[in-house]
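Action item from last week, closing it out:
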Amino acid sequence: MRLDPTQQAALDEAVRLFNAGDYFECHEVLEKPWLAAGEPAKTFLKGLIHAAVALHHYRRGNSHGARVKAASARRYLEPYLPAAAGLDLAALLRDLDAFLAPLHARPALPPPPQRCWPLIGPKLPEL
């Protein structure tokens, strides 16, 4: 698979950010090219975004989100294995699976609860 020059430039920057541990920024760099891409680049870029988001969720303590995004990253990237656009996808998925394996050994926790914002002012009437 070949990426166009804009997609490749975004990928190069995304790889730099990913390797520096800037997973959210990696996602941000890939989002615009992903939205504009046609297939097969669209699914490939989406898989890379999900891999970065999985690690972003992990870092923020959202084990549910990390597991879900890692699983979807695998689904999106498997068609491009073992490598695409100069990336060793087999190694990426292997390392992601190994890193997140301890999360799979524990029972799944529910997603974080929705925040409840307290009202300021008079109490609402009771029904």
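Closing note: The chain has a mean pLDDT of 87.
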